[in-house]
Amino acid sequence: MAKYLVIVESPAKVKTIKKFLGANYDVEASNGHVRDLPKSQLGFDIEQDYEPKYITIRGKGDLLANLRKKAKKADRIYLATDPDREGEAISWHLCYALKLDDSKVQRITFNEITKNAVKASLKTPREIDMDLVDAQQARRMLDRMVGYSISPLLWAKIKRGLSAGRVQSAALRLICDRDDQINAFIPQEYWTLDAHLTEGKSKKALTVKYKDTIENEEALKEILKNLENAEFQIISTKKGERVKKAPLPFTTSTLQQEASKTLNYSTSKTMRLAQQLYEGVDVKGRGTMGVITICVRILSACLTRPWRWRKTISRSSTGLSMWVEPPSRQKRTERFRMPMRPSALPIFRLRPYC
Q1: Sign of torsion over alpha carbons 314, 315, 318, 322
Q2: Higher-confidence residue: 256 or 330?
Q3: Alpha-carbon gap, residue 2 to 25, rounded angstroms
Q4: How large is the average pLDDT for residues 318-335?
Q5: Fold of the domain built from segment(s) 4-135
C-alpha cells in the first residue's frame, strides 16, 4: 500500500490534518524556515548577480534528519506550507535541504484547514511556483540591503538593538515629510455660522450653513447685526434614504485595526489568536478543527468557486462564504486579497433561516 508524507509549517496543524487523512498519510512539520541567509553577513553577492548564500538554521539538524528518514520511506511527498510567497519559499528550501527527488514531490495549498479543503488540495497538486520563490528571495535581500546599511547608524545615533528595513525606512520618510508640511503650515483665522430653522409644524430643526467665508470675529458680528429680526424662508426641502451596507469581511489589516480599537489587542496578540483559529482549536464533540480561513493575496482567475454574493446562509453549506464584491471585468485578472471568513459553519449555533 502506498505511503504518503505531508509536510506543513506549524506543528499545530499536524494534529488537525492527521484527523482528516487516513493511515496512509504521515503528517510532519518543518517548524517554519529550515534555511536562511547567515546573520553575521549580508548573505548574498551583489557582484555575482545577487547570488544568495543559504545555510541551515541552527537547531534544525535533528528535524531535517527525521524528515529525510520519513521522505525516503514515502512513495509521494506533498509540501503543504502556507499558500503565500513565504510558504512557497519554505517548500523550495525543503526540497533542497532534504535532497528530494522531483518526481516524488508535489505542492499542495489550502486556505482553510477543513476536511473538504485538505482533500480537495490533494486532488489538484502542482509544482513549486518559482515566481513566488523569487519574489520572497527579492524581498528578503531587500530587507538585508536596507537593514544592514541603516541599522548600524541607528545604533550609533539613537540606541543599540534598533532595526531598520524597507518598510520602516519608507514609513519614516512619509512621517518626516508630513511633519515638515505641518511645520510649514500658516494658520488662517476663519469663522462659521449656522442657522437652525424649523419648517411648518415639524419639530426637527434644519441646519443651514452660511456659504461665504467669514475672516474674523468683527465680520461675524456685522453679519449677526444685519440678521437681527430677519425672516428666513425655506424654499424647498429634499428627503432621501441612505443605505448602510454591511461591513466587508476582515483582511489582515482591518482585523488588526478592529481588534486594537475594540479589544485593545496588540498586533502580535491579534495575529497569534488568528493563527490559532486557522491552524485548529478543540471544538466540543468535533475534536480539533480550523474555524477560519487564511487571508491571502490571490489571482481571481485561480478561484475555485464562482463569483457570487451570499445574502443568506445555507444550512447545508460546509462554510460561510463571505466574499468581497467582485471587481469589474477589466480588473478580474489583477491580484486582490481574499478576506478571512468562518470555515466551519456547523460549530456555530444559528437560528433557523438566519
Answers
A1: positive
A2: 256
A3: 9
A4: 41
A5: Rossmann fold (3.40.50)
CA distance 53 to 6: 27
Rounded CA-CA distance 154/35 in Å is 28
Tell me what pLDDT residue 345 has.
56
Q: Which residues are registered as beta bridge partners of 306?
A: none
Burial class (CB in 10 A: 0-12, 13-18, 19+), 294: buried
Length of the chain: 354
Query: To 10 degrees, the CA torsion angle through 30, 31, 33, 36?
Result: -110
Better-scored residue on pLDDT, 130 or 298: 130
Query: Domain segments of the chain: what residues?
Result: 4-135, 194-226, 252-347
pTM for this one? 0.68
Q: Determine the Cα–Cα distance for residues 306 and 326; give it in Å rounded to an integer.
A: 10
Residue 182 pLDDT grade (very low, low, confident, very high; cuts 50, 70, 90): very high
Lowest mean pLDDT segment, chosen from 190-204, 267-281, 290-304: 290-304
- Tell the burial category of 141 from Cβ atoms under 10 Å away from its Cβ (0-12, 13-18, 19+): middle
Does residue 313 register a pLDDT over 60? no
